[in-house]
Amino acid sequence: MEEKKPAPQPQLKIEIDDATARGAYANLALITHSETEFVLDFLFLQPQSPKSKVLARIVSSPVHAKRLLWALKDNIEKYEARFGAVPAGEPAPSGGQKPVGFYQ
Predict the structure, then answer these.
(1) Can you give the residue ranges of every domain in the chain?
(2) Could you say which of 2, 3, 40, 47 would form a disulfide bridge with 58 (CB–CB 3.0 to 4.6 Å)?
(3) What three-state secondary structure class fits 98?
(4) Cα four-point dihedral sign 16, 18, 20, 21
(5) Alpha-carbon span 28 to 54, nearest angstrom
(6) Cα–Cα distance between 90 and 76 in angstroms, integer?
(7) Per-residue DSSP letter, 9
(8) Which helix (H) or strand (E) segment is 32 a member of?
């Protein structure tokens, strides 16, 4: 009996322009959502500056937002296994009112 081999997965080809490849440093993320989408705004907040501009906005479906959460969790676990724990304090309690973007 002949064994069936799974069909090869097509290769995803990704292109990136120079400006996007340079990236943008963000130290603050604001996240909002509706029933159908999540909006992630990334900002760079300078010390002692009362204002900042949004550097990038990503709009995603709840399904993709959850997959991003899983991917970040997986990558942070791999990073910490290699380099040690990341001292980030404690997450804000669910539904709690904390200063925007900051954790203790």
Answers:
(1) 24-83
(2) 40
(3) coil
(4) positive
(5) 10
(6) 15
(7) P
(8) strand 28-33
